[in-house]
Design brief:
By secondary structure, the chain is mainly β. 10% of the residues lie in helices and 50% in strands. The chain has 1 helix and 4 strands, in the order αββββ.
Length: 80
């Protein structure tokens, strides 16, 4: 690799971002759905552009397993 490419490979960008995030869990066709929306503004950037990022995520997964009842507690009276 030639020397003039080394600086390009080691440059790291930094940025500060802040913004809201909203998530919603809902049932869908016997599964569990999750919809997430987040948006944040980026500022104080070094080696990166400033601006806004927005992400929308939709996840479908099997429903959570039903909780089993805990086993009965053993007591001295129950051990007789």
């Amino acid at each position: 690799m030639e020397d003039h490419f080394v600086g390009m490979l080691t440059t790291k960008g930094q940025v500060i971002g802040i913004g809201p995030q909203f998530g919603y869990i809902f049932p869908v066709a016997g599964m569990q759905g999750y919809l997430n929306l987040k948006a944040y503004g980026e500022f104080d950037g070094h080696d990166r552009p400033h601006g806004w990022n927005t992400w929308i995520t939709l996840v479908l997964s099997p429903p959570p397993a039903a909780e089993k009842a805990p086993p009965p507690m053993l007591t001295k009276a129950g051990m007789r």
